[in-house]
C-alpha cells in the first residue's frame, strides 16, 4: 500500500465525499441514495478464500464479498411474542443478519429464522419498526470501513419470515444510530459522523420505501450549518414529540476518534433542540462536562414535554424542559435529575427505556455490568429501585426494550467491539436477557438466549439491538413504544 492506512482512509473518504457531493443534485424528496458496489466482485471459490486471508486493516477494510450464513432450518412455530435481533457475527467475514426468536413462555428462545444482509463487518447497530408495523430498519455503525450502505430495510409483512428489502446511505453523513418512525411512514435516523466519521454528523430522514429524503440541517440552512460547525455535532440520541413539534438529538462521540490511530475519544456535552416541521435547530443545550450524551428520550405523558438525557462520563441523568427558556433567552432548560453514583461514572454507554406510562426508567450502565431502575412518578424526588451494589448476571449490557405488554425488559449483553481497528471493545456476554418486570418496577433476571452458542458456526453472534413484536391480537400487532 503506497499510503499509510490512515491516509488512504482519508483519501478514500474524500474521494467519496467528492463523488457524492459535487456532481449530484441536492437530495430532494425523491433522491435515490447512491448504492456503492463492493470493491471486489464476488467470485465463488476465490473471494470466499480471500475473506479468510485478509487481516483486519486499520480504518479501511478490504471490501471482499461476505460469506453467507451457514445453512439453517427455519421453524414453523408461530409464537405470539417475537424478538427481532440485529446481529453481527463473531467472525466478521460472514454477513450481518437479523435473527428472529420466540419470546412466548412455552417456546421461549426457539430460533424461528434469520435473514442475511449483503454486507459484513458493518457492526449492526440500532433497529426499529415502521409506524405501520410492516417494515424494520437497522443501521450500521462501521459501514464506512468497507464503504458499505448504512441503512438496511426489512419487510415484515409476514412477521415470521422477514425479508431483506433494500439498503441505503446518506450523501454527507454515516455512522447510523438511533431511529424514530414517522407517523406518516419512514424514519428519522441520527448519523453520528460525516462520511469520513468526523464531526459534523447529520439527522437523516427516509421515506417509507427506504429512500433518503434529506440530511438536516440542510446545506442551505446557514444558521443551522454554522451551529453544527461551531460545537461538535455527533448526534446519537434522538427523540421526537410529534404533537409539540420538537426534536431532541444528543451528541455522543466523534466516531473517527474511536478508531486507530487516535489521540483519545472526543466526547460531546451537548444536545440540539429542533423545530420538527422546519427541520431546523432552535438551540444548543449544554450539560457541563457531560462527557458523551448518549441517549435522550421524552418522558411518556409528561405535560411539560420534559425529556431525560444520559451524561455518560458523569454517570448522571439530566432532565430537559424544551419549552422553557433560560435567563439569557435561549430555549431549553436543563438540570440534574439523578446521579447514579460512583459505579455509573465513565461506563462508556448509558442507554435507556421507559415503561409506557413514563413511571419507570431503565438504564443500562454498560461497563458496570448493571441495569439501574428509577421510579420517576415524582420528578422532584426520583426513587432508585435497584441496589447499586448488587452483582447482576449481565455483562456489557446496552440495548433495552420494555415489551409491549410491559411485563419484560429485553436487555442485550453486547455494546461494541471494533476489533483491531478501534479502541472501543467492551466486554460482553452476547446474551439476550429476558428480564421479568415485577409490579413495583424491579428486575427479576430469569431467562436468556445465548447468541455465542446459537451462532457458534460463525464465531458467535453479537446482538446489538432488538425490536419486540406482540401478535396476541393478530389484527392489531403491538411493538415496543419507541
Ligand atoms: C419489589 O418487589 C419484589 C417482589 O415482591 C421485592 O423482592 C422487592 O424488594 C421490591 N423492590 C422494591 C424496591 O420495593
Ligand atoms: C421465569 O421464567 C419462567 C419460565 O422459565 C416463567 O414461568 C416464570 O413466570 C418467570 N418468572 C417470573 C417472575 O415472571
Automatic annotation (TrEMBL):
<dbReference type="InterPro" id="IPR011044">
    <property type="entry name" value="Quino_amine_DH_bsu"/>
</dbReference>
<dbReference type="InterPro" id="IPR015943">
    <property type="entry name" value="WD40/YVTN_repeat-like_dom_sf"/>
</dbReference>
<keyword id="KW-0732">Signal</keyword>
<feature type="signal peptide">
    <location>
        <begin position="1"/>
        <end position="21"/>
    </location>
</feature>
<protein>
    <recommendedName>
        <fullName>Methanethiol oxidase</fullName>
    </recommendedName>
</protein>
Amino acid at each position: 500500500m503506497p499510503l499509510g492506512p490512515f491516509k488512504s482512509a482519508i483519501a478514500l473518504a474524500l474521494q467519496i465525499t467528492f463523488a457524492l457531493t459535487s456532481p449530484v443534485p441536492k437530495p430532494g424528496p425523491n433522491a435515490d441514495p447512491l448504492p456503492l458496489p463492493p470493491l471486489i466482485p464476488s467470485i465463488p471459490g476465490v473471494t470466499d478464500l480471500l475473506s479468510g486471508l485478509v487481516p483486519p486493516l486499520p480504518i479501511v477494510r478490504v471490501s471482499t464479498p461476505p460469506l453467507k450464513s451457514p445453512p439453517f432450518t427455519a421453524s414453523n412455530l408461530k409464537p405470539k411474542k417475537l424478538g427481532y435481533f440485529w446481529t453481527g457475527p463473531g467472525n466478521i467475514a460472514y454477513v450481518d443478519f437479523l435473527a428472529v426468536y420466540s419470546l412466548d413462555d412455552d417456546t421461549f428462545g426457539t430460533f424461528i429464522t434469520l435473514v442475511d444482509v449483503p454486507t459484513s463487518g458493518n457492526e449492526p447497530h440500532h433497529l426499529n419498526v415502521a409506524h405501520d408495523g410492516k417494515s424494520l430498519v437497522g443501521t450500521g455503525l462501521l459501514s464506512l470501513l468497507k464503504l458499505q450502505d448504512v441503512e438496511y430495510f426489512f419487510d415484515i409483512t409476514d412477521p415470521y419470515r422477514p425479508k431483506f428489502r433494500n439498503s441505503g446511505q446518506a450523501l454527507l453523513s454515516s455512522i447510523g444510530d438511533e431511529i424514530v418512525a414517522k407517523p406518516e411512514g419512514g424514519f428519522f435516523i441520527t448519523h453520528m459522523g460525516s462520511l469520513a466519521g468526523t464531526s459534523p454528523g447529520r439527522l437523516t430522514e427516509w421515506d417509507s420505501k427506504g429512500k433518503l429524503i434529506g440530511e438536516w440541517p440542510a446545506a442551505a440552512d446557514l444558521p443551522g450549518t454554522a451551529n453544527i460547525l461551531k460545537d461538535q455535532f455527533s448526534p446519537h440520541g434522538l427523540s421526537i414529540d410529534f404533537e409539540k413539534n420538537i426534536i431532541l438529538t444528543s451528541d455522543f462521540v466523534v466516531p473517527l476518534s474511536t478508531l486507530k490511530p487516535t489521540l483519545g475519544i472526543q466526547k460531546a456535552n451537548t444536545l440540539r433542540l429542533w423545530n420538527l416541521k422546519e427541520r431546523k435547530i432552535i438551540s444548543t443545550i449544554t450539560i457541563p462536562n457531560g462527557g458523551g450524551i448518549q441517549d435522550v428520550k421524552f418522558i411518556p405523558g409528561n405535560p411539560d414535554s420534559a425529556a431525560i438525557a444520559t451524561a455518560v462520563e458523569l454517570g448522571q441523568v439530566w432532565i430537559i424542559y424544551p419549552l422553557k427558556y433560560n435567563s439569557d433567552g435561549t430555549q431549553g432548560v436543563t438540570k440534574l435529575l439523578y446521579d447514579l453514583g460512583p459505579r455509573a461514572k465513565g461506563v462508556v454507554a448509558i442507554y435507556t427505556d421507559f415503561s409506557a406510562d413514563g413511571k419507570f426508567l431503565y438504564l443500562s450502565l454498560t461497563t458496570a455490568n448493571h441495569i439501574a431502575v428509577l421510579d420517576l412518578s415524582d420528578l422532584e424526588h426520583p426513587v432508585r429501585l435497584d441496589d447499586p451494589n448488587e452483582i447482576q448476571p449481565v455483562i456489557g449490557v446496552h440495548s433495552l426494550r420494555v415489551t409491549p405488554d410491559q411485563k419484560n425488559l429485553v436487555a442485550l449483553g453486547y455494546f461494541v467491539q471494533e476489533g483491531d481497528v478501534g479502541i472501543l471493545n467492551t466486554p460482553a456476554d452476547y446474551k439476550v436477557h429476558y428480564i421479568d418486570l415485577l409490579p413495583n418496577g424491579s428486575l427479576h433476571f430469569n431467562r436468556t438466549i445465548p447468541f455465542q452458542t446459537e451462532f457458534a458456526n460463525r464465531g458467535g453472534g453479537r446482538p446489538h439491538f432488538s425490536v419486540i413484536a406482540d401478535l396476541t391480537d393478530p389484527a392489531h400487532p403491538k411493538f415496543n413504544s419507541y
